[in-house]
Amino acid sequence: MNSRLVTHSLAPTRRIALASLLLSVTLLLGSATTATGAANVTPASKITVSVRPIGANDLKPSQCATLTLTTLVTSPTGTNAADLQLGTPAADNLDGKNGADCIIGGAGDDAINGGGGADICIGGPGTDTFTNCTTSYQ
Ligand SMILES: [Ca+2]
């Protein structure tokens, strides 16, 4: 049996060109892999972070736990909504107007008028007077 080995040989300049091309492709793939790896930085997870607004209902004292408050008021006259109305350290004349309000006089001799609605009035330190309050705390 006569076997013949057939080989294809490249000219030396083509071998060098092919080797150079293979080296270039290898280097290119290596750098692309490195760049892809560097770009895949995963940011820290915020899965445990919860954001929600804080409103008047979140700030109410325990005496007003039965009320659902919608508006924070720091002026002497409340709104017709369900207010958390805050007095000052001085003597205040507070009017809750309509709505089931939680009115807090703070220090000073306060005059607290709940107005319409089932209001809870908290006088605080001082000698306070209460009008139209369903429940009052001195
Ligand atoms: Ca009221």
List the helices and strands and how they pair.
Blueprint: H1 12-39, H2 56-59, E1 71-73, E2 83-86, E3 93-95, E4 102-104, E5 111-113, E6 120-122, E7 129-131, E8 135-137
Parallel strand pairs: 1-2, 2-4, 3-5, 4-6, 5-7, 6-8
Short structural summary:
With 138 residues, the protein is α/β, with parallel strands linked by helices. Helices cover 23% and strands 18% of the residues.
Could you please describe the fold and organization of this structure?
- This protein has 138 residues and is an alpha/beta fold.
- 23% of the residues lie in helices and 18% in strands.
- It contains two helices and eight strands, in the order ααββββββββ.
- The longest helix is centred in the N-terminal third of the chain and has 28 residues.
- The protein is rod-shaped.
- The model has no long low-confidence stretch (mean pLDDT 87).
- Bound molecules: calcium ion.
- The site of calcium ion (CA) has 10 residues, from loops.
- Calcium ion binds next to loops.
